Amino acid sequence: MVSKIDVAWDLFLEGKTSEAKKLVEQDFSIDTCTDFSLLNLMGYLLLAEKDYASCTRIFEKYILLAQQNEDKEQEHIGLHQLAMIYRDQGDFHKALKLIEDEEKIIEEHFPNDNLKKAVNNYEQGYVRFKLNNLDEALTFMNLSLEQSLETDDVISQACSYRGLGEIYLALEDKGLANTHFKRAIELFESVGEFEEIKEIEELINR
User: Fold this and answer.
1) In this structure, is the dihedral angle defined by the CA atoms of residues 18, 24, 29 and 33, taken in order, positive or negative?
2) For residue 27, what pLDDT band results from cuts at 50, 70 and 90?
3) Which one, 8, 21, 33, 104, has the greatest CB density within 10 A?
4) Rounded Cα distance, 146 and 142, in Å
């Protein structure tokens, strides 16, 4: 049987945020919820509504729960999601601190997982880009690309190419920026991520 949470995730991924929320919100209480999938979903749904206070509480609970269960997999995910919330609000220093905490867990517990490393290094690079540390940003984003190319995760590869495009644009190297953007568009196209393509085209035309 397909669970209500799975159906809600599908709705959320199709962009039907309010339908997804209607389906699960009556079953959700932050104080009693111990289901990582539901916490994660509610966090995303509230982030989509820009309810930063509530989704911060959810992911703080998520991290605490993971620590109590000594679940390193969920702890690193929670740190990553909380960092995303701070990045979304423009608190880049706080976001970077959480991403660095996540990196320590990945290095210690998942040293051979290139996808985890690639996604972490993407954030490391992107947050530094936002802090205008462009040389450091470039180093991390190149590392993210290198690691994502070791996996078959097309989205991760496309994100790294897009990130490099944005950094080269900030460095005023239009040629390299467009080369990376073009590759990102090809990859996003191959998996039907047209929203992402629209965003890249806006960056190119800016």
Assistant:
1) negative
2) confident
3) 8
4) 6
Q: Which two tokens stand for residue 154?
A: 């097309």
List the one residue out of 165, 156, 168 whose CA is nearest residue 193.
156
Using an 8 Å Cβ cutoff, are 188 and 197 in contact? yes
**Nearest CA among 54, 64, 67, 63 for reference residue 25:** 54
DSSP percent split of the chain into helix, strand, coil, nearest 5: 80, 0, 20
How is residue 71 written in tokens? 């679940």
User: pLDDT per residue over 119-159, tens digit each?
Assistant: 999 999 999 999 999 999 999 999 999 999 999 999 999 99
d(CA 56, CA 60): 6
Position of tokens 């467009």? 178
Residue 99 C-alpha from the chain's centroid: 11
| Residue 124: closest CA among 142, 111, 109 | 142
Q: What length does the chain have?
A: 206
pLDDT in tens, 44-55: 999 999 999 999
Nearest to 122 by CA among 168, 161, 170: 161
